[in-house]
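Extended Data, panel c. Modelled sequence:
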Amino acid sequence: MALKTFNTRDLLNDPKIKEPWPEQFVDWYVQRDPKLTDELATVLNEAKDERPLQEFYTKHPSMLALVFPVHCCWVFPKPRLGGGKWVPDFLLCDKNSLGFRWILIELESPTMEATNKDGSVSADCNHALQQIRDYRRWLRDNALFEEKQGFKGLNADCEGWIVIGRRDTGRTDLEQQLKSRGIDTVVLTGISTNAGVESTARQGTGLGFAFVLVEDACSAQSAEHHRFAFENIFPRLTRVRATDEVLAALA
């Protein structure tokens, strides 16, 4: 009997994949509107605190999901932990073969300095760190309570991220060079598959570029890492092809 196969679009269109939080489900596989990147750049340049970033990512949660290596993703803006006593800026949940992976996210102002001139952690950054500690302390003692509120698998072992919204002033002008030449699709190869290659594909997708990932022209530290990226991550981001297929298409 022939096996029935599905592509990524079929899977993401299946209502069951959005459970158990269909309203918070984020379809990060869709092609990004380049205007969103420009809008985010404007927010980063003009924001005086984190509130404009909170509004942007609440309206466009797929842009936040792109930062993290997700598989099946849900984003909760301003979740009310402890009945509202603890309110992180975002709570992101990813589901993989091992179960649910939760991430606490605290946004900070684009003007915030993470360190002082002597290299020590700044007071603002210490405050953000303390917030993450407080959330985890609550979850350590009240994971069952949050489970009953619907946050399956959320506990004190969750990750904690402090996101300082700031444009990368050290970034090259590659984006502008490509766009000025009308280039909207990039053929991507290189090492390491699950590090540099994946981060380039994620960031470029967020900037509105399409990619063709050449599977046999990439490598990783292990065959397992390489296979996982090409079977679970890249098909959701872009097209995957072999070298022979790319050369034939370019001939």
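The two ends are 38 Å apart (CA to CA). This feature is highlighted in the accompanying rendering.
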